[in-house]
Amino acid sequence: MFVQAQFPYGTTGLLHMPTADMQRDKTVMVGGSALNKHATPGWSYNTYNYYLNITLFPFLEVAYACTLNKGMPGNYWPESTWGKFTNQDRQFSGRLRVIKEGQFWKYMPAVVLGGNDVLTRDWQTVDDKDDDSGFGTPVSEGNGRWNRYYIAATKHLNLYGEIGVHAAYVYNNRISYHLNGLAIGVNWRPQIYPCLNLMAEYDSRTVNYGLSHVFLKDYINMMMEINDFKYISFGICFLMKLK
Questions:
Q1: Average pLDDT over all residues of the chain
Q2: pTM of this structure
């Protein structure tokens, strides 16, 4: 059964939270999304992304994703670029399954270690005048917007279809989009219509829900989410199997 890629990260998971689901060996996913600004870590405008994801082995997945940037008023952007998509934010991601579901006993969940935006340099500037500690107070930060590290666990159950129960601990050290806590979620593929996947989650920051639908024998997946009960994003993913 096809397991979808996440909207913002292009890696396997629910909507925003990571899971321990894995794609089949030698699976390639190519996709893109229209992202509401509230579903991003710091964009002040609605944007788009695209990604390439490869499951090299049944236990190892790598991905590359780009999110589009607009030129905005300020010293960095020439006025001719204001309001136009002129650049992109890049991120590399990886996921390693360390325990397979049911590996040691039948109720054992799968466990995955992973990270997003793990190679991008992340910098901070500080204001020494506001802090007597001598280290300064962080006032701005640079790249690594999508950065996070996590450990995720997943267990599947049968209840009028397939239910996935997911839990994860996510972390990063950013100022504007700090992640540090528990994420929980569930998805359900109804037995009477397994092409449909219904999802709900708390990603450690917001509550999100959405759905995906597969077409053409799982080769195309279309997705939609409502972030924080308010903001709609959607995407499409094309699936290829190398063997």
A1: 88
A2: 0.87
